[in-house]
Every structure is written in C-alpha cells, then in structure tokens.
Amino acid sequence: MAKVVKQAASYKTPLYNGTHGNLSVQCGEVKSFFGAVGDVYELFELGVGVRLIEAKVSIPAALSGGKVQLQLVKSEDGSKVADITGEIDLAATGITTSDDNGYFPNLPDLQEELIVQAVISGATVTSGKAIQYQIYTQSVGNA
After folding, report:
1. What CA–CA distance (Å, rounded) separates 48 from 38?
2. Which CATH topology does 5-13+25-139 take?
3. Residue 22: what are its φ and ψ, rounded to 5°?
C-alpha cells in the first residue's frame, strides 16, 4: 500500500522566531492519530535559518498497536536529515524527548527548508486517540 502523507493542523501554523539566537516553542496535537505502517504526519515546517533544538512527544492515553518516530526531512525531496526520536511505543503512555535518542542540532545548519514529521512503524494504528508534541527552535539566520 502506498504511503499516506497527512498534514497536522500545526503544520500550517507559522513558527515565531525573533532576533538571531532567540528560542521559540511551538506545540501541537493530532486529535485522532491513526494510520498504516509508513504513513506520515507532517507536524511542522522549519524555514531557512531555523534550527531544531529539541522535540517532545506525549502519549496521554495508550493507542492500539504501532510505533511512531519523529524525523527531520528536507522539504524539497523528503530525504531524511536525522532521526529526532527513536521509535516510540504508542501502547505506553508518557513523554519522550529527542534527548532520549541522543539527537543534537546539526551544525553547520542546512540552508534549506525542513519538515518535522511523525512516521508510523511496527503495526497499523487504529485507535484514533490523541498524541501531543512540542518543538523548540532557534533562529540562526541564513548564509
């Protein structure tokens, strides 16, 4: 079956990034998270000059089956830049951070638009319960 790409409501929300060096936080939620293995939810778009510092995922109520992993990909072609988290078991409640996976911001920064996405793995997710997430970004400017 072909991969399905869905855009979370947070994807269209502009990220505030002020003067170079400022940290910003952006929160989001997929109220009914479901899909097949390989399906993708695009959570946030990061413009040129925006560095991802940290990401957190909250599973407030256990979902049926499957896992999810946050990834940073190039907006232009979808190629993976980094795994932000390891695979998160959706049957377990709790909070996972990018620090748990050893994610560290890439330096030097890529001078292109990036997407933070959630990829379903392991098994089909059918329960349709919510997942919540937040990212911390930093404005670093462009070359």
Report:
1. 27
2. Jelly Rolls (2.60.120)
3. -65, 140
Query: What tokens were used for 17?
Result: 């990034």
Q: What angle do CA 81, 115, 87 make, to 5 degrees?
A: 65
CB 63 within 8 A of CB 125: yes
End-to-end CA distance of the chain: 41
Contact between 35 and 6 under an 8 Å Cβ cutoff? The reply is yes
**Residue that the structure tokens 């933070």 belong to:** 116
pTM tops 0.85 = yes
* DSSP-based three-state secondary structure for 11: helix
- Domain residue limits, the chain: 5-13+25-139
Query: What contacts 35, CB < 8 A, 6 or more positions away?
Result: 4, 6, 41, 120, 124, 125
Q: What is the pLDDT of residues 72-115, one digit of tens each?
A: 999 999 999 999 999 999 998 999 999 998 898 876 667 889 99
